[in-house]
């Protein structure tokens, strides 16, 4: 667990020992991990990584899970060559590191990836999911990008959400009850704003007893009490995408 001086306890959880079924490609100025299902599809999902970057095995595992459910999945390097955070880094430098990796300044890269998915993968219906840093990026995109159909924000840091809550697309928000960096009062406030201002479908769900990163950073085989909630979060994510793509 993180100590109190750390601004972001994102090192909770496990790094999976997982290689990936997809391949790395170069899309203009961006490297990306792409995985395609065996049958052709016009549905695709952009996967936005957390602070540990696009090469984290956990995130590729989630991308491959989308592919087994019939989606083309792509996880681009939204840090665009800048170094991902390492658990061994000094957390005292985290805020300085974060300044050059703004989750709300990824629009140029998203446009490049959307073009690639349409032109190279035949995608017509495109959604987005994101974890932690990527969850905040999903919130940004759901407010701004007209070309995406839906989004799932998994424990996206709400404080980057400002006061904007007029979503363009159906959005599913996943939070853990015991998340040290996203207090439940922030989640409650988000729900209130959405209820007042949002004109599209949305859902905010809190998973009992879960800490930050639980859907992609916890191994269900060594956390038996968490396993039902990890599986439920993943199933809910897939069901939401199935509904709107």
From TrEMBL:
Transmembrane regions listed in the UniProt entry: none
UniProt key word Cytoplasm: yes
Domain Dienelactone hydrolase span(s) in chain numbering: 30-245
Short name of any one Pfam family annotated for the protein: DLH
Compartment(s): Cytoplasm, Cytosol
Molecular function GO terms recorded: hydrolase activity
GO cellular component terms attached to this protein's record: cytosol
InterPro entries membership: AB_hydrolase_fold, CMBL, Dienelactn_hydro
Primary localisation category: cytoplasm
This protein's record includes keyword Transcription: no
Keywords: Cytoplasm
Organism domain of life: Eukaryota
Gene3D superfamilies, alphabetized: alpha/beta hydrolase
Family the entry assigns: Belongs to the dienelactone hydrolase family.
Protein's name according to its UniProt entry: Carboxymethylenebutenolidase homolog
Species the sequence originates in: Neopipo cinnamomea
The gene coding this protein: Cmbl_1
């Amino acid at each position: 667990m993180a100590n109190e001086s750390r601004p972001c306890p994102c090192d909770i959880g496990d790094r999976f020992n997982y290689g990936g079924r997809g391949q790395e490609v170069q899309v203009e100025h961006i490297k990306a991990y792409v995985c395609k299902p065996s049958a052709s599809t016009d549905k695709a999902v952009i996967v936005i990584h957390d602070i540990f970057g696009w090469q984290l095995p956990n995130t590729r595992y989630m991308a491959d899970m989308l592919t087994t459910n019939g989606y083309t999945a792509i996880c681009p390097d939204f840090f665009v060559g800048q170094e991902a955070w390492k658990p061994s880094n000094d957390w005292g430098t985290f805020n300085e590191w974060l300044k050059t990796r703004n989750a709300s300044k990824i629009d140029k890269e998203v446009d490049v990836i959307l073009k690639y998915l349409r032109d190279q993968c035949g995608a017509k219906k495109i959604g987005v999911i994101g974890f932690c840093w990527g969850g905040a990026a999903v919130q940004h995109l759901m407010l701004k990008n007209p070309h995406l159909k839906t989004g799932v924000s998994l424990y996206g840091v709400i404080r980057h959400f400002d006061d904007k809550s007029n979503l363009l697309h159906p959005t599913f928000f996943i939070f853990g009850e015991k998340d040290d960096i996203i207090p439940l009062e922030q989640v409650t406030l988000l729900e209130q704003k959405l209820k007042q201002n949002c004109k599209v479908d949305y859902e905010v769900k809190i998973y009992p007893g879960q800490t930050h990163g639980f859907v992609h950073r916890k191994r269900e085989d060594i956390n038996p009490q968490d396993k039902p909630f990890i599986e439920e979060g993943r199933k809910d994510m897939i069901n939401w995408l199935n509904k709107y793509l």
